[in-house]
Amino acid sequence: MVKALEGLSDTDGFALLDLQDAKVLRENGWQGPILILEGLFTQDDVFEALELRCDCVVHELNQVDWLESAMDARQVPQSAHAASMRVFLKMNTGMNRLGLKPDIYREAFHRLHSIGFNVAHMTHFANADYVDRTPTVDQQLELFQATIKGLPGETSLSNSASILWHHNNVQCDWVRPGIMLYGASPSGKYEDIEHAQLQAAISLRTKIIGIQHLEAGDSIGYGSRYRTDVPIRIAVIACGYADGYPRHAPDGTPVWIAGKGGLADGKICPMAGQVSMDMITVDVTDMPSADIGTEVELWGQHLPVDRVAQASGTIGYELLCAIAPRVKRI
Fold it and tell me: What are residue 235's phi and psi, to 5 degrees?
């Protein structure tokens, strides 16, 4: 992902969750901005962040205390000073997750600004991913703008949902695209992003490892959840919940099976039977060319991850995050 994104002119920086990931980025040659999105967890993190040249989100007053303390000349080398770190001060405008309430926000800003930090302003929208609930976005935006009125500094507001659906109302200096970078929908509904023509960045693929011919009345898999009333042809697919495929996926969940001409010549076939640790079973009665060794796409370029997630009662975020370390990356 780093190699792909760093070559794009619009990639100005990376937002990460912890300093170890930042270290990996630096070791791989990234020299641009790195933002630690959940802020520093301990006072010692301040020194590591300075060493790695990271910017940090501040969302608690104790983090302000740590930064003030670290900027004491006796603790920080001359080469590591406040101007080398941009602070994104996060305001809680209604998400009620992380962030300073508006009534103490300006105090925190002035404390950080007075010791030399370049302070930017940040908040997070609770309902931007609901396309038809713009009033809530507007309310948070109004509170944010009223609180920072007159204060210097850049702003960072928009996540994927705000970029896609609220860009006419929400203007800011920094945007924070996440799920849309993978070609998936912030709302969990593929229909909501079809117009954007996003491309899938990840395809989860495997192969058929077995074929079973079932007669009417036969059942499949654990618990005999799926029972057929007509003769069918079942493909056994090498992927299961130990790989990150959702165990709760119901019968009928779409799976893309390659045709004679490969994946591009394939079509959707329905899953049939309980997901196992290492396998799923799919009805390929209508795909006579499907056989052992045939390629399968569980989601990706031909089958949007949001389609699979919707069928499984979850969202694309969860499926993309759940891919297990044992799955080979190419």
Answer: -100, 135
Specify the CATH class of 204-322 in words.
mainly beta
Cα 108 to Cα 80: distance, rounded to the nearest angstrom: 21
The structural domains of the chain, with segments of one domain joined by +, span 2-177, 204-322
H or E element that contains 259: strand 254-259
End-to-end Cα spacing for the chain: 11
Whether residue 301 contacts residue 200, with contact meaning beta carbons closer than 8 Å, is answered with yes
* SS3 category, 38: coil
pLDDT one-digit tens code per residue, 128-162:
987 765 678 999 999 999 999 999 999 999 999 99
* Vertex 38: Cα angle to 64 and 185 (nearest 5): 145
Phi, psi of 103 (to 5 degrees): -70, -15
pLDDT at 1: 61
N residues, the chain: 330
CA distances from 307 to 166, 185, 257, 295 (A): 24, 10, 15, 19
In the block, residue with structure tokens 């910017």: 55
Same fold yes or no, 2-177 and 204-322 = no
Query: Which CATH number applies to 2-177?
Result: 3.20.20.10
